[in-house]
Write a structure and sequence with these properties.
Radius of gyration: 24 Å
Order of helices and strands: EEEHEEEHHHHEHEHEEHHEEEEEEEEEE
CATH architecture of the largest domain: 3-Layer(aba) Sandwich
Shape: elongated
Number of helices: 9
GO molecular function: ABC-type quaternary ammonium compound transporting activity; ATP binding; ATP hydrolysis activity
Bound molecules: adenosine-5'-triphosphate
Helix content: 10-25%
InterPro entries: AAA+_ATPase, ABC_SmlMolc_Importer, ABC_transporter-like_ATP-bd, ABC_transporter-like_CS, Mo/tungstate-bd_C_term_dom, P-loop_NTPase, Transp-assoc_OB_typ2
Organism: Streptomyces ficellus
Pfam families: ABC_tran, TOBE_2
Number of domains: 2
Largest sheet: 6 strands, mixed
Keywords: ATP-binding, Nucleotide-binding, Transport
Oligomer: single chain
CATH superfamily of the largest domain: P-loop containing nucleotide triphosphate hydrolases
Distance between the termini: 31 Å
Length: about 350
């Protein structure tokens, strides 16, 4: 469906997107994820036709889009800076793309009603946009983007303005809706929870490059680099010398997954792999703090040697602040980073 080949965008001396190649298959939902300034929005704007690339090509269904204007690309946009028209009612907003295409009035009305049903706002045609809640406005914007049946829907921080609870609900609804419609989606977010809940594939960007691309599970389980690991919030990273089935680190010996190549590397231990036990066993650590995280408690530890550690444990097992514990590591939560 979409193929980017070696796309580069420069702003003066700054390279915002650096020889990026990316394919999006029919019906696939791909989320670009990354810190601020990593080039996500610029890449999206290139695909939309809002930003000409300095080098590289954008193909939609095999056709080079060089020189093709936004409205002829057959893509739907739901961008942060793409607000609803406040002077039009909900129906007028949703019908916008259909009017532009010269659709007949009764076809417009039918399609608007269908879309409003789909986004959970049946019968809202005559409501004023200003009288809608933030979440309702997002749904209208989505209906407007979907109305002309775009071959590719592009979303830039689609739920950015909304509070967390609503975002978590809407993201699940969006995924179901796109699945039902078979919509191909390229979305941008800096919120990893949103990306992981929405996407079939997550593309993590760093300084205009793709740092990692994979299914949410893949990326979560096997971050490819220290950058990706830390971006996902994993901070238990340490230098390690791997020999055989173990690694020597400042935290002592850590078991590594079978088949890990020998050498000096960085190693990540996911918090679930940090086991707390008797102070006589393993690495002695002092409990510095505890944070309640819903299903578990995150325990911050100061080890006798090496950088701070975070452990994850069940509420009832969480040691008190100031306690001294012994830490051991489980190999299935250890990732040797590239
Ligand atoms: N129109 C522009 N003129 C000059 N520099 C720009 C322009 N647009 C983007 N940039 C720069 O290009 C880089 C990438 O920006 P971009 O907006 O694509 O990042 P992003 O990952 O989407 O960030 P955010 O999450 O903050 O939106 C940044 O350094 C930004 O300052």
């Amino acid at each position: 469906m979409l193929a980017l080949k070696d796309v580069t965008v420069r702003f003066g001396s700054r390279v915002a997107v650096d020889t990026v190649s990316l394919d999006v298959a029919d019906h696939e939902i791909v989320c670009l994820l990354g810190p601020s300034g990593s080039g996500k929005s610029t890449l999206l704007r290139v695909v939309a036709g809002l930003q000409p690339p300095d080098a590289g090509t954008v193909l939609l269904d095999g056709t080079d889009q060089a020189g093709v204007p936004v409205h002829r690309r057959g893509v739907g946009l739901m961008f942060q800076d793409h607000q609803l028209f406040p002077q039009r009612d909900v129906g007028g907003n949703v019908a916008f793309g259909l009017r532009m295409r010269g659709a007949a009035r009764d076809e417009q009305a039918r399609r608007v009603a269908e879309l409003l049903d789909l986004v959970g706002l049946p019968g809202a045609e005559r409501r004023a946009v200003a009288a809608l809640s933030g979440g309702e406005q997002q749904r209208v914007a989505l209906a407007r983007a979907l109305a002309p049946r775009p071959r590719l829907l592009m979303l830039d921080e689609p739920l950015g303005q909304l509070d967390r609870g609503l975002r978590e609900r809407l993201v699940v609804e969006l995924r179901q809706l796109f699945g039902r419609l078979g919509t191909t989606v390229l979305a941008v977010t800096h919120d990893q929870g949103e990306a992981f809940a929405l996407a079939d594939r997550v593309v993590v960007m760093r300084d205009g490059h793709i740092a990692q691309s994979g299914t949410p599970l893949d990326v979560w389980q096997r971050p490819a680099s220290e950058f990706v690991a830390r971006f996902l919030g994993f901070d238990n990273v340490v230098e390690a010398t791997v020999t055989g089935g173990a690694a020597d680190t400042a935290w002592g010996q850590i078991p590594v997954p079978a088949g890990s190549a020998p050498g000096t590397v960085r190693v990540l231990v996911r918090p679930a792999g940090v086991r707390l036990g008797d102070p006589a066993d393993g690495l002695r650590c002092t409990v510095e703090g505890r944070t309640f995280r819903g299903h578990h408690v995150a325990v911050r530890l100061r080890p006798e040697t090496g950088p701070p550690l975070e452990a994850e444990c069940a509420l009832r097992d969480a040691p008190a602040e100031g306690a001294v514990v012994g830490v051991t590591f489980t190999s299935d939560e250890v990732v040797v980073l590239g």
